[in-house]
């Protein structure tokens, strides 16, 4: 049954609540590269995967910073109405998908908007003149400056967009087979979460994949069309394998960043709700971020007939053998983690709720260190 967005999506129209929300996410996102570094140290990430993941996390940070500029004066009388940041209070704790779509539309107009705006220097000078001459807070000028800073962020082009097209990185090759690591990302509209994909593949085509004017656009379009959190990795990988006879997916990985739970902002249920309520953590430490890592690997290859005389390779993917879960998850393995500050972790450890024993905990402290539990 569909969920009514009006009951799960909330606009942060209070100035201080909005600013605390962005400050909270700025702190959360700052920990994620360190969490990824711990994963690499444990062998869960390769060097290039760490670089790719860190770049996407940084782009998420840039997107949040841009939105914080857009809504910097929310709730104030600015002479213009932009509304408030709309967030998903139930499924994700992140901004809703539409915020990313509007941001992408604004980015297309950034050059024109900035050309018609006073410079930052001029706006600041006008603010001083207003304060001295009128002895009032220059709210409308503050708003104009915040919008300029917003469009400057969009103009930089380094943000996490609703769709982040596939990029292929050459990994070497031998015997007529080139190896690539392809990565792409989306802001999943079904769950309002950033989702990152990495695929290792072998290419037996005649032209290098990124330079192939026929195959590469088709690959990009196919992967973006399949980048849905509701699809199993097995479905995505088999569809790709069957669509492209000379491209062989050997490993597919999907990382879900979120949901974010906060007693002050989200309507979570179950053990996490009780943990955050009982923790009574100080401002900035009242949160938990989920982190899900799905991996699908090829375990063997079979050759099938194609057409009258041709033969093609098809991958056989390894599924999780435990209690039939592989068939349910469509992955070789799925690892669930949470990132949380020390105080909520202490309460979680004391309560020890069912189902959290297999969840990896990354505990962060005020000094920025990350501990794995």
Question: What are the segments in which pLDDT stays under 50 over at least 5 consecutive residues?
Answer: none
- Derived structural class: alpha+beta
Instruction: Please estimate the helix content.
Output: 40-55%
Instruction: Write down the Rg.
Output: 23 Å
The H-and-E topology, N to C, reads as HEHHEHHHHEEEHHEHEEHEHEE
Instruction: Give a count of the beta strands, DSSP E runs of length 2 or more.
Output: 11
What share of residues are in beta strands? 25-35%
Shape: globular
> What is the rounded distance between the termini?
37 Å
User: How many helices does DSSP assign?
Assistant: 12
Main sheet characteristics: 9 strands, mixed
Instruction: Give the overall pLDDT as a whole number.
Output: 90
Give the arrangement of secondary structure elements.
Elements: H1 5-8, E1 9-12, H2 15-41, H3 47-70, E2 85-88, H4 97-108, H5 110-115, H6 120-134, H7 139-156, E3 163-174, E4 177-188, E5 193-203, H8 215-225, H9 233-243, E6 247-261, H10 271-279, E7 288-306, E8 310-318, H11 325-329, E9 333-341, H12 342-351, E10 360-364, E11 370-372
Parallel strand pairs: 9-10
Antiparallel strand pairs: 1-2, 3-4, 4-5, 5-6, 6-7, 7-8, 7-9, 10-11
Helix pairs in contact: 2-3, 3-7, 6-7, 10-12
């Amino acid at each position: 049954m569909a969920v009514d967005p009006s009951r799960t999506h909330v606009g942060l129209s209070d100035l201080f609540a909005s600013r605390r929300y962005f400050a909270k996410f700025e702190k959360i996102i700052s920990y994620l590269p360190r969490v990824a570094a711990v994963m690499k140290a444990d062998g869960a990430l390769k060097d290039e995967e760490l670089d790719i993941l860190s770049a996407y996390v940084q782009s998420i940070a840039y997107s949040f910073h841009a939105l914080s500029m857009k809504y910097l004066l929310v709730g104030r009388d600015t002479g213009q109405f932009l509304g408030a940041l709309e967030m998903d209070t139930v499924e994700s704790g992140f901004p809703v998908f539409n915020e990313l779509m509007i941001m992408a539309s604004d980015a297309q107009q950034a050059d024109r908007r900035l050309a018609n705006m006073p410079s930052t220097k001029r706006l600041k000078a006008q603010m001083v003149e207003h304060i001295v001459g009128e002895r009032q807070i220059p709210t409308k000028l503050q708003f104009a400056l915040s919008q300029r800073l917003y469009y400057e962020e969009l103009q930089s082009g380094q943000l996490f967009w609703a769709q982040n097209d596939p990029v292929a990185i050459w990994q070497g090759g031998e015997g007529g087979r080139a190896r690539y690591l392809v990565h792409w990302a989306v802001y999943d509209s079904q769950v309002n979460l950033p989702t990152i994909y990495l695929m290792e593949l072998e290419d037996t085509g005649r032209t290098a994949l990124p330079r192939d004017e026929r195959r590469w656009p088709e690959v990009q379009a196919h992967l973006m069309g399949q980048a849905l959190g509701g699809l199993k990795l097995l479905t995505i990988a088999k569809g790709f394998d069957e669509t492209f006879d000379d491209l062989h997916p050997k490993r597919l990985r999907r990382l879900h960043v979120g949901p974010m739970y906060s007693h002050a902002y989200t309507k979570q249920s179950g053990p996490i709700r009780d943990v955050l309520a009982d923790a009574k953590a100080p401002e900035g430490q009242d949160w938990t971020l989920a982190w899900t890592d799905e991996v699908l690997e090829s375990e063997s290859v079979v050759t099938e007939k194609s057409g009258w005389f041709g033969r093609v390779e098809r991958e056989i993917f390894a599924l999780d053998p435990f209690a039939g879960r592989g068939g349910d998850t469509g992955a070789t393995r799925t690892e669930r983690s949470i990132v949380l500050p020390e105080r909520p972790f202490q309460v979680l450890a004391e309560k020890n709720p069912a189902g959290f024993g297999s969840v990896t905990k990354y505990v962060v402290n005020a000094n920025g260190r990350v501990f794995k539990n």
